[in-house]
Amino acid sequence: MTTLPNQPLQSFLDELNQKTAQTQLGGGQKRIDDQHKKGKLTARERIDYLADDGRPFVEIGLFAGDGMYNEHGGCPSAGVVVGIGYVSGRQCVIVANDATVKAGAWFPITAKKNLRAQEIAMENHLPIIYLVDSAGVYLPLQDEVFADKEHFGRTFRNNAQMSAMGILQVAAIMGSCVAGGAYLPIMSDEALIVEGTGSIFLAGPYLVKASIGEDVDAETLGGATTHTDISGVVDNKYPDDRSCLDAIKRIFDKIGHRDLAGFDRAEPALPAKNPAEIYQILPADRVKPYDMQEIVERLVDNSAFDAYKPGYGQSLLCGYARIDGWAVGIVANQRKVVKAKGRTGQPVEMQMGGVIYGDAADKAARFIMNCNQKRIPLVFLQDVSGFMVGSRAEQGGIIKDGAKMVSAMANSVVPKFTVVIGNSYGAGNYAMCGKAYDPRLMLAWPTAQMAVMSGASAAKTLLQIQVASLKAKGEIITPEAEQALLKKITDQYNTQLSPYYAAARLWVDAVIDPLQTRQILSEGIAAANHAPITKPFSVGVIQT
């Protein structure tokens, strides 16, 4: 973890470090000890043992569920650990139920996180490993997790489709596997089970007794011997967690190789400018300006950035670079005030940092199309307040310019990656490849803020609405009461601006230290390289 004495971003990093350590404890030390007493490894210990030493593991959704379900005791990390890692040298997705959190039961956010894991595997053609140890659906919230399109059942639909796509799925039953959840490992291509601790059945002993009056113990009903030697439901049994995980390593050691997308990669090089200087360049105050190019030059190899149309549309930086050797096209919001050269007869225009102007949107659309033409992955660096407003912008056609950029970005066939550095407001979030536009990874720095508009603007707007409503009812509000109401609204809205609020709901995949950005983007592009591009690039009707 990064320590920055007397630096403005230290409080952001301290919060990230503290929340990371707490969340990684899952259900707490007592429940971890209980797992060990049963002879079981925890979800994180299983992944540590399974994944290759010395290779990156990019965790997805660490903060999923953060601050949610408090009335149910909480659901840290959504009760499941997910990430992109390596097993026997093969990049893959790993999903491990955390039995220290409500016995690994599925909350609504658990279903969303599992579906996100499968989505990553499907769009990147990565094999996926399920380490199953779950009590099934969390019954008090079953109406929010069971029946809808993006609920529990979608998992098994994805199982079937991934198998048809040729994406390998290997499941290890390392604890409970109950009811509908029993289909997940058995719809995988290979299913393994741990003797003594692993069990799988559609209905447990209590439900069997209640339904048909049969008395049967869990081992006889759905234990390892029953399902390997008698039913043939499971392929192989192993005496303990480690031997089962070793078997998965042997499976992955023999997987054949497939065609790659062919994204260009040169010999990786570190930035020439010290990446740690990001902490001095990026202000803690989200209103203050800074030069985004200085950030970019501390993220890319050799600090080499080949700008595209640098003198035009300066509120967006567009250009080519390499990240850990991978060729990328970067679209980034410029946060300093720039001077736009006026057209004939028009004065020079001062353009505010973080705002997308018409000329910048026009430039970005063309650049995005060029990256698709060249098969270069796109990286979006967000610190955006939105599009320019006002009569001059409207008369200049800001809406059609923005629509052109959104159309080019939305129809891109090259993989897209988004990093929210600072603000991510309104339509700016959309144009800069927000979650709705399928970035392969959506990352946030601890300084990120995501909402329809800034906290100050939103609070004043909401205050005006509430005061008008009170006055319409004949109620008089004093200046003191108005200030108290403003503070209440501001505090509530600022909570929702937090990157951890976004991460809890999986609007972003991870909140990361800025110094992790290069490695995570590199792993994301490596993952995307497993999926050849087969869809032609077409933008449809472009507004001109």
Query: Number of helix segments?
Result: 20
> Mean pLDDT, as a whole number?
92
Structural class: alpha/beta
Terminal CA distance reads 48 Å
Query: What share of the residues does DSSP label as strand, in percent?
Result: 15-25%
Supply the key terms.
ClpP/crotonase-like_dom_sf; eight-stranded mixed beta sheet; EC 6.-.-.-; 20 helices; globular; alpha/beta; 544 residues; ligase; ligase activity; Acyl-CoA carboxylase subunit beta
Give a short summary of the structure.
This protein has 544 residues and is an alpha/beta fold.
What does this structure look like?
The protein is of the alpha/beta class and 544 residues long. The protein contains 20 helices and 20 strands. Strands 1, 2, 3, 4, 5, 6, 7 and 8 form an eight-stranded mixed sheet that branches. Strands 9, 10, 11, 15, 17, 18, 19 and 20 form an eight-stranded mixed sheet that branches. A two-stranded antiparallel ribbon has the order 12-13. Helix 4 packs parallel to helix 5 and helix 17 (455-472) crosses helix 18 (479-497). The longest helix has 19 residues, at 479-497. It is globular, with a radius of gyration of 26 Å. It starts with 9 loop residues before the first helix and ends in a 16-residue tail after the last helix. The model has no long low-confidence stretch (mean pLDDT 92).
